[in-house]
Design goal:
Elements: E1 5-15, E2 21-31, E3 35-40, H1 46-53, E4 61-66, E5 69-70, H2 76-82, E6 83-86, H3 99-109, H4 114-127, H5 143-155, E7 161-165, H6 173-188, E8 193-198, H7 204-207, E9 210-215, E10 218-223, H8 225-228, H9 232-237, H10 244-254, H11 267-282
Parallel strand pairs: 3-8, 3-9, 6-7, 7-8
Antiparallel strand pairs: 1-2, 1-4, 4-5, 9-10
The structure holds adenosine-5'-triphosphate and magnesium ion (MG).
The site of adenosine-5'-triphosphate has 14 residues, from helix 1.
Length: 283
Amino acid sequence: MEDVVRLRVAIDSFVYPDGTAAMHDIRIDVKNGEFVGLLGSNGSGKTTLLRIIDGLLKPSKGTVMLDGTDIRKLSSKEIYRKVGLIFQNPDDQLFAPTVSEDVAFGPLNMGFSKEEVMARVKKALADVEMGGYLDKSIHTLSFGQKKRVCIAGLLAMGHEILLLDEPTAGLDPMGEYKMMGLLVRLNREGRVTIVMATHSVDLVPLFLDRLYILSKGRLVRSGSPEEVFTAPRDMEHVRLRLPQIAELIYKLKHEDGLPFEKLPLTIGEARREILRLMENAHA
Ligand SMILES: Nc1ncnc2c1ncn2[C@@H]1O[C@H](COP(=O)(O)OP(=O)(O)OP(=O)(O)O)[C@@H](O)[C@H]1O
Ligand SMILES: [Mg+2]
């Protein structure tokens, strides 16, 4: 099951009606159970790509295959049964008057009983730490709270594949870590396949298996975080940067001559490398 390709994206081009050529030559395979990141600066094409994968936009030239079928041949209902998309802006997604009504909308439409829907709504809101907000009016929520409610709405439906457009943008630091923890649990324990757009370079190496870097509508690099985050210059090229801890170690190695072997991407890896260097210095 692990190696089964769920999504096969082959977009030769996508042009918006105003003539903006937003995608060129995109090839992405997403396998069952993967947690894949789309990393790119503002305007690099992340949202466009997720909307094409979800069938909301049609590539000018190219195809998106979902479980081996061209999504053009699927009804939107058939796509949404398997794939859920979280919009970048929660105001584009939320529409019901209250939090619980909004989160209940998806599961109600899927035909679950009232009791099942209520259980799903409560569980999903608890998962995103919004359990106390069931009757709260949507328009009174803060931006980060709206974002959490959007994610709860998707969790309550239980999709096999989630497309997340910057799910942590606007969340506070603890909320960001908790949200990523929740997504990782969904992915590892719930076997949910996830494609997530982000420009949060510090978070990526902690949580993602594989990433694609987008720049000006093209894929410029792909691989594990170790393969993709190499030198500051490569990242500046695509208007990104290394994770801050990696930037520090890179400078200590290349500008101050400290003998680091590899470039740590997380605080944990950096700590181990520094302790190893100190032990060697005392030996
Ligand atoms: N509806 C539209 N009509 C015309 N051009 C558009 C439209 N939506 C996006 N674009 C353009 O397509 C390109 C890619 O935009 P997109 O929103 O996909 O980028 P993004 O990587 O999601 O950026 P951000 O990090 O700011 O969310 C940009 O040049 C943008 O101006
Ligand atoms: Mg976007």
